[in-house]
Design brief:
By secondary structure, the chain is an alpha/beta fold. It has a domain at 46-141: Cupredoxins -  blue copper proteins (Immunoglobulin-like, Sandwich). The chain has one helix and eight strands; from the N terminus they run αββββββββ. The chain has a five-stranded mixed sheet with strand order 2-8-7-4-5, with no helix packed on it. Strand 7 and strand 8 (135-141) form a beta hairpin. The chain is globular, with a radius of gyration of 26 Å. The chain binds copper (II) ion.
Length: 142
């Protein structure tokens, strides 16, 4: 009877060791994949970010709904916005209820980006079609 118990225990120990090794491998693979994703996100250097909780009235804890809400650029240099919130937002030229038709990102996915190259100098106001309190200005210089 004692011999039989030993024979049964040895395979169980081997199985536990194999399971341990396989799950360790899975953890390593997951870690590598996550690292690659983070690097890809950082490649897009946005000039203007939509902060977390921008969907809350007055943008929650933030003094600005687009950071910065006033940005100066040059003609033909693309401006990139990035949505860092977990909600949809838009970057739409004009003011709330009065889009001027120059540009419109549509509903930007969480962590999505939008870029626009200005071809006219001057002040260009924009807003979010989903949240009336979100507004910003781009000044375009020669
Ligand atoms: Cu919004």
């Amino acid at each position: 009877m004692i011999m039989n118990k030993k024979i049964a225990i040895i395979p169980i120990v081997i199985i536990i060791a194999i399971i341990g090794a396989v799950s360790q491998m899975n953890i390593d693979e997951t870690t590598e994949t996550e690292t690659v994703e983070i690097e890809t996100v950082e490649e897009v250097e946005a000039m203007i970010t939509i902060p977390v909780k921008a969907a809350r009235p007055a943008c929650g804890p933030h003094p600005e709904c687009y950071i910065p809400s006033y940005y100066v650029t040059k003609l033909d240099e693309p401006v990139i916005w990035k949505n860092e919130d977990s909600a949809f937002h838009s970057v739409t030229s004009g003011s709330y209820g009065e889009p001027d038709g120059m540009f419109d990102s549509g509903h930007m996915d969480p962590y999505g980006t939008f870029s626009y190259k200005f071809e006219e100098t001057g002040m260009h106001p924009y807003y979010c079609t989903l949240h009336p309190w979100m507004a910003g200005n781009i000044k375009v210089e020669r």
